[in-house]
Amino acid sequence: MTRRHLRRYQAPEWWPISPKEAVWTVRPSPGPHPLEKSLPLAILVRDVLRYAKTLKEARYIIGKGLIKVDGVVRRDYKFPVGLMDVIEIVPTGEIYRMVPHPTKFLWPVPIGKEEARYKLCRIENKTMVKGGQIQLNLHDGRNIQLPYEEGNKYSTLDSVLIDLVEKKIVDSVKLNVGVLGLVVDGNNVGYYGKITEIIKLQMKTRRSVVMITTDDGRQIRTILDYVFAVGRESPLITVAPPKEVSQTQ
Q1: Residue with the larger pLDDT of the pair 146 and 242
Q2: Is residue 165 part of a domain?
Q3: Is residue 10 very low, low, confident or very high in pLDDT (cuts 50, 70, 90)?
Q4: 145, 61: one domain
Q5: Predicted TM-score (pTM) of this structure
Q6: Residues ≥6 apart with Cβ < 8 Å to 129
Q7: Rounded CA gap, 235 and 155, in Å?
Q8: Largest CB tally within 10 Å, which of 20, 84, 95, 187?
């Protein structure tokens, strides 16, 4: 049985709320992202974007339909916001993307209106469905069905660029040596660079070792399951905060 409430000390440590201010906090609703990798919309509005001072104010803002996630108005203050989600503040026109951060795990970065139309998603699984079609199960809970010939071009852990308006795939990146990889979990979360080596394991492929070289020459070692392919020569979308912001926060 799922509890309706969440004690602060049981919430993820990276949430930007103090464990000493209150006993309870907001439990994310079941949705596209798991609890440990998401942030309730109310906490994002109040504690990260600071559009509200209290939970009551945050609930009012969200309930009035002033916040969009991936182009859809969300009125549930418990709605889980996660990796690569596009957040739009309707009255101000401000738009953010949730990206990995080296110290904050997930953090919003400002993006332009044109980029807000697109979202990069990772393929977590592929299944065959009725009619001989292939269904791609993406990291944010989306399922995309494609004809067999088209769907067979994609592999698990590849990334696809989704047009949120047309609801279709417009580009893709295979998770191979030579592409840009973003670390989305583990001790090196938030770093990205060119994948220089993948040491594959016969069993438990997702535990394969990946070597990533950042722009400043830093060598990152992580596992394949923590890597998100984001582009070839350059990222397809904004995937990291500006360096000056990253260093000061």
Answers
A1: 146
A2: yes
A3: confident
A4: no
A5: 0.91
A6: 135, 145
A7: 19
A8: 84
Report pLDDT for 210. Answer: 96
Are residue 148 and residue 230 in the same domain, yes or no? no
Where residue 241 falls among pLDDT bands split at 50, 70, 90? low
- Residue 216 CA from chain centroid, whole number: 24
Q: Is 114 helix (H, G, I), strand (E, B) or coil?
A: coil
Instruction: Judge contact between 112 and 94, C-beta under 8 A.
Output: no
242 within a domain of the structure (yes/no): no
pLDDT band at 239 (very low <50, low <70, confident <90, very high): confident
Question: CATH number of the domain that 194 lies in?
Answer: 2.30.30.30
Rounded mean pLDDT of 213-221? 92
First to last CA, the chain: 38
Q: Are residues 109 and 130 in the same domain?
A: no
Residue 248 belongs to a domain? no
Dist CA 3 CA 21 (whole Å) = 21
Instruction: Please give the Cα distance from 86 to 117 (Å, whole number).
Output: 9
SS3 226: helix
Whether 36 shows a pLDDT value over 80: the answer reads yes
Could you tell me the residue range of the domain that residue 157 belongs to?
117-173
